[in-house]
Amino acid sequence: MKDEHFGDLCNLYFLGTISAEEMAELDCCLKGSQDLRVKFAAEARLDTNLRDAASSFEKKQGASISKVPSRPKWQWAMGAAAALLLIALVVSFFYPGRKREHIARIADLHGAVTWIGDGEQAEGRLEIGNELTGGTLEVSSLDSWAELVFEDGSSVWVSGPAVVTISDGGSGKMIRLREGDLSLDVSPQPEGKPMRVITPSAEAVVLGTQFNVSASPLSTSLTVNEGNVQVTRLADGSVQEVKADHRVIAALEHESPFQASPRGDSVRIWKSEFPRDVRHGSLGFGAEGRPNELHAGAHLFRGDHGETIDPVLLYTAVVGPRGREMQPVLLSKGARFRIRGQLDQPYQVDFGFGTHHARGGLSGKFSVKRKLEPDQDGWFDVELALEDFVRMRSRFVESPAGHELVWLWVQTHRKDVGLSLSSVELLSPESK
């Protein structure tokens, strides 16, 4: 196959207009050529970067365009197509055209949630029931979330911080997750038009199932609870069929293992391990270069539900059970969290965690506030019973007992008081 034709197929794929026959041809090309898989992976990363730039255009007006080194003709063709997409989004920002069709609606939301559709930021208050065209949803903080429901009933829970772009074109629904966590319940899709979920390191092809995705710039973790999902690692084009009660991790570096494996039996105790379980924050290193603390990272909160307020500075550290061999962590009635770390001074601290249904999707977020008094050396050691935490939304399960722990956050507001974590443990009800 000539590079030009392969480039044409890739253009159609990235623009979301590829037909079922063309998709089959592209799939055949990728399976038959390592060189084409490498080229496709490179263009996937380019396409993701361009779309990310387009979604944040209004934040970067006036930015200069850097010169890039020369590239092969077929790459220029694909880059030009992606650039035309970017230009189209920019034009729609300044010269809105005809109204686009709605493809989804907001079924629920909480906290700092922003919608950017048709190239411009949504004005006014973003509310439950708002209908959406294709565009980008930004969920800015750990205690924020949104639920999107497509016209066919497929639902997507987006847990912050996350950036996700949705579209629904001739080749089916497309969801691009730049970072963050999704829980999807996908209705049966039309033949030849699967839903595609794309992250910086993987692509999942879905016909109808329930699964959870967690993405960072370097890797993607996907857990299937019902049905089957085909996952492609973009670094090399390798493909895994992930069936129910299995998970797979796709990293950018193709030397890493890429193999679907059973989730295993759940456990009821857990202790954080750095850097494996870090979700947000920066690592501090102790003797012999080993990570021994997680420093809270700073980010801005700009208001709930699209309201405009003076930005509030938050400092947040987030941990969660991760790793290829990590079994599901099940919360038990009477269990406790033990959290150890440091503060520069006495201060009110927010604690919270998110859960999934056992072998299922998002079930709730829970939080509690405590005034901490560090000792003379700046250390704190606090235990919080599961029953101390309150659900953050009435539609969430009343008790987290019997549900799987996904992540836990510790946060201070407005002031940097040197928050860091040295360990987080889930203790069994029987432990003293």
Topology:
Layout: H1 3-15, H2 20-32, H3 34-55, H4 73-94, E1 104-110, E2 113-117, E3 120-121, E4 131-132, E5 135-139, E6 145-150, E7 155-169, E8 172-185, E9 195-198, E10 202-206, E11 210-215, E12 219-226, E13 228-233, E14 239-243, E15 246-251, E16 261-262, E17 270-271, E18 278-280, E19 282-285, E20 291-295, E21 297-301, E22 312-319, E23 336-342, E24 347-356, E25 362-372, E26 379-385, E27 390-391, E28 404-413, E29 420-427
Parallel strand pairs: 8-9
Antiparallel strand pairs: 1-4, 1-6, 2-3, 2-5, 5-7, 6-7, 7-8, 8-11, 9-10, 10-13, 11-12, 12-15, 13-14, 15-16, 17-29, 18-22, 19-20, 20-29, 21-22, 22-28, 23-26, 23-29, 24-25, 24-28, 25-27
Question: How would you describe the overall organization of this protein?
Answer:
This protein is an alpha+beta fold and 432 residues long. It has helices at 3-15, 20-32, 34-55, 73-94; strands spanning 104-110, 113-117, 120-121, 131-132, 135-139, 145-150, 155-169, 172-185, 195-198, 202-206, 210-215, 219-226, 228-233, 239-243, 246-251, 261-262, 270-271, 278-280, 282-285, 291-295, 297-301, 312-319, 336-342, 347-356, 362-372, 379-385, 390-391, 404-413, 420-427. It has three domains: 3-94, no CATH class; 104-262, Jelly Rolls (Sandwich), CATH 2.60.120; 270-427, Jelly Rolls (Sandwich), CATH 2.60.120. The strands form three sheets. The chain has a 16-stranded mixed beta sheet that branches. Residues 53-98 have low confidence and may be disordered.
